[in-house]
Amino acid sequence: MNQLTLLIFIMMASFFSQGVIAQNIKLPEPDKKGGMPLMQALNERSSHREFSSEELSMEHLSGLLWAACGINRADLGKRTAPSARNWQDIQVYAFLNSGIYLYHEKTHELELILKGNHQAASGKQDFVSTAPVNLVYVVDFTKMEGADESHRDFYKGINTGFMSQNVYLYCASQQINTVVRALVDRDALHELMKLNPDQQVVVAQSVGYRP
What we know:
Layout: H1 3-17, E1 25-26, H2 38-44, H3 58-69, E2 71-73, E3 78-79, E4 90-96, E5 99-104, E6 109-115, E7 133-140, H4 152-174, E8 177-181, H5 186-192, E9 199-208
Antiparallel strand pairs: 1-6, 2-3, 4-5, 4-7, 5-6, 7-9, 8-9
Helix pairs in contact: 2-4, 3-4
C-alpha cells in the first residue's frame, strides 16, 4: 500500500467514524402495482398492538412511507394523501432501531435526525418499544399560509388522518400490523426530535410484522 492509498484509507475511516458518510437512507422505489385489491384491504383494515421484533424490510419501509405521503404526481409535486390547500403541512418522522429519521417525499429518502434506539420515547404504551417502526406525525404551522389560527387544529387533525389511514390500508394489504396512537408525551418528543416552535407532534403510529 503506497502513501497516497494509505492517506485516502485513513480519511475515509475518519469520515465513517464521525458519521459524515451514509447517515441518510435512500429508499428503494415502492412497488405501486402490488398488494391486494382496495375493497379487500378495507375489509382487512384493523388495529393491532402485537409486533414481531423482526426489522421491516427496506421494500416494506419504502412502500409504507410512500403510502403515507409519497409523491404520486411528480409533475405537480403532489402527495398520495390530500391536504387542505395543498399545504403539505404534515411531516412524517420514522423511529427505527437505528435512529430517528425525517422522511423526504420528494427524494424518497430518510434523513437521520438522531442516532440510537428511541422507540420507547415515541409513546406511553408498553408495546411501543417492541415495534420495529414507529411513525410520528408532525405539523408545521408555517406551511398553513392564510389559515385562521382557530382552525389550525382542525386542519392538522384531518390532514394527519388521511395519512395514517393510507398507512392502515398499506399494512392491511401487506398483512402487517399497525395501530395509531394519541398517548404520546408531546413536550418530550418535541425536545428529543429537535423540533422548532412552529412544529407540533400530532399522533404516532406503530408498525411491524405479525408475531
